[in-house]
Specification:
DNA-bd_HTH_TetR-type_CS, DNA-binding transcription factor activity, mainly alpha, Arc Repressor Mutant, subunit A, DNA-binding, about 240 residues, 2 domains, Tetracycline Repressor, domain 2, Tscrpt_reg_QacR_C, Tet_transcr_reg_TetR-rel_C_sf, 10 helices
């Protein structure tokens, strides 16, 4: 029986050692069990948080197209390697920023909803929530992003999920109104599109109006819209 000897070249050994050192270099805060220590996690989370905060400010100030990843690096005081470790592209970073903003908007609405009772009061509260947010610069940046190019399916899916998540507020409120027999029974999804179109459209129309509108004017339009809506949808 002939033994076959497997030779490992000096080059192979040095490459393996270099790879090992590279891994060690990135494993900041490792414990003896090979798990990432709390300091390593904390530093990474803080870096990501700072990137998102500074990127949000840039997108708010300049829109989507005018912001560059180099600019984000400088503003957030991070290296390109660190930035691309957390976000693989400007698209990824922007969508994350918008998703986080949407989550915050929904959380604020959930808090307001829990402070109100009754369908009518909640509809007025939802209208006020939209009125306070209609000039959100990220909405304009999102519109710019959506129109700026042809997006791959995964981006289109994320955009659809962002939009659908904003419909949750009106969908749940309409469902509650139907379930409690406060609102006329009908096609829920049709109701959602109509109500959401109204709430989003008021701010848009007011924004492009020739005559300047004050925040008080905008709030008045939203409240009047809800009054007319409920007048037509109540069961009694």
């Amino acid at each position: 029986m002939t033994d076959q000897t497997v030779y490992v070249s000096v080059y192979d050994m040095s490459s393996l050692f270099a790879s090992f050192l590279l891994v060690l270099d990135h494993m900041v805060g490792l414990g003896g069990d090979g798990m990432l220590g709390s300091k390593g996690r904390s530093d990474g989370e803080e870096t990501k948080k700072r990137i998102v905060q500074k990127a949000t400010q840039l997108f708010v100030q300049k829109g989507y197209g005018a912001v560059t990843m180099n600019e984000v690096c400088v503003t957030a005081n991070v290296s390109k390697g660190s930035l691309y470790h957390h976000f693989s592209s400007k698209e990824e970073l922007f969508l994350y920023v918008v998703e986080e903003d949407t989550k915050q908007w929904l959380q604020e609405w959930d808090n307001k909803r829990s402070e109100t009772t009754g369908i009518e009061e909640r509809f007025y509260a939802l209208a006020e929530h939209y009125a306070h947010d209609f000039q959100n610069p990220l909405i304009r940046a999102l519109e710019e992003f959506s129109r700026s190019r042809t997006h791959p399916p995964e981006i289109i899916k994320r955009l659809a999920l962002i939009y659908d998540s904003t419909l949750r507020a009106s969908r749940e409120l309409l469902q509650e109104g139907i379930d409690t027999n406060y609102l006329l029974t009908g096609d829920l999804e049709n109701y959602v599109i109509i109500v959401n179109g109204m709430l989003e459209g008021i701010g848009r129309v007011a924004e492009i109006s020739v005559q300047a509108k004050t925040p008080e004017d905008i709030m008045k339009y939203y409240r009047e819209a809800v009054r007319l809506l409920l007048q037509g949808m109540r069961t009694h």
